[in-house]
Amino acid sequence: MRRGLVIVNTGNGKGKSTAAFGTLFRAWGRGFRVCVIQFIKAETGNWGEIRAARKLEIEWHTFGDGFTWLSKDIAKTAEKARHAWTFAQEKISSGKFDLIVLDEMTYAFHKNWIDINDVIAWLKTHKPPKLHVIITGRAAPPELIEYADLVTEMREIKHPYTRGIKAQPGIEF
Amino acid sequence: MRRGLVIVNTGNGKGKSTAAFGTLFRAWGRGFRVCVIQFIKAETGNWGEIRAARKLEIEWHTFGDGFTWLSKDIAKTAEKARHAWTFAQEKISSGKFDLIVLDEMTYAFHKNWIDINDVIAWLKTHKPPKLHVIITGRAAPPELIEYADLVTEMREIKHPYTRGIKAQPGIEF
User: Fold this and answer.
1) Does A64 map to a domain?
2) Which of A47, A150, A169 lies at the smallest CB-CB distance from B14?
3) Which of A102, A135, B19, B74 is surrounded by the fewest CB atoms within 10 Å?
4) Domain tally for chain B?
5) So what's the ipTM on this one?
6) Cβ(A27)–Cβ(B48) under 8 Å?
7) Does residue A69 carry a pLDDT above 60?
8) Quick check: is B172 in a domain?
9) Higher-confidence position of A39 and B1
């Protein structure tokens, strides 16, 4: 029987969102109904993964205003994150999906824009049993790790920035 | 200017191959020419990622005979790995690709089926400067980490097996 997993990709290294998109690719290959909700990425972005999703008609929603730590209007950024979670709740409880990615959601916990205990309590009662959910972002809160079925830490061992190499399109974004 | 990165996804956790497939998804979204060569996965596999690749007409080659550590004929398994590397060399030097994934290649180094120093020396002289290469697998050799531009370790923090939950199609394969 299929058991919907709660998966967390965390840590300071690359590959947290990327592995979630790899799972999406795999799930899409099996005909799963998939959806991505991004808490940080700006609506105006035209990243490689968004272009791919558009080509494949995968549901992909961006709610951030770019890199929130550069935000000049924190109240507005916080409101966007809360709106993303309300939107995610609709998608999760709709029963229309097999896999939903909540990308870079952990930032909203750290900034106290969304309460982790409220999220877990809601998921326990509203997440359809067969639905897989992936949550990504640095420093996942202990409550989330406790609740999740599968947790991976992506650790940076070596980064090209330290060699003076800029981020590469198609690879890092 | 584009700089072809050598990327290594290693560690004992999930997400090494999956993050490589996520990068593939992103690169494909940008219209990159991509190719996957798998050193372990059996030719007969019908995994989610292979189904996705088939739908998208992405070049995807499997050279393994399943889980090599269960192999009954090690000489044949070793020969398959060496054949995969010869095949990869052709693809790498062809100039026809922007991104090539060498999936689960590190096993071949550990088993001494392929010499890591030979591989690095060959890549240094034959890899087109703009080509990105991703090598995945547990316990990447130090020589490979030294040579690579970007190295991430995927660490297992929590695994569903420990809760008695079986591997889930579309998520883990």
Assistant:
1) yes
2) A150
3) B74
4) 1
5) 0.92
6) yes
7) no
8) no
9) A39
Is B89 domain-assigned?
yes
Distance from CA of B73 to the nearest CA of A (A): 30
Check if A156 contacts B (Cβ < 8 Å): yes
Residues facing B8 on adjacent strands: B135, B151
Element (H, E) at B76: helix B74-93
For B15, the closest of A19, A47, A99 (CB atoms) is A19
Q: Which of residues 77-116 of A touch B (CB under 8 A)?
A: 98-99
Question: Least CB-CB distance to A148: which of B9, B151, B158?
Answer: B158
Which tens digits make up the pLDDT trace of B123-160? Answer: 999 999 999 999 999 999 999 999 999 999 999 999 88
Q: Which amino acid is at A38?
A: Q
Amino acid identity, residue B45? G
Q: In what order do the strands lie in the sheet with B132-136?
A: A59-64, A34-42, A99-103, A132-136, A6-10, A150-158, B150-158, B6-10, B132-136, B99-103, B34-42, B59-64
**Residues on chain A touching B50 (C-beta within 8 angstroms):** 29
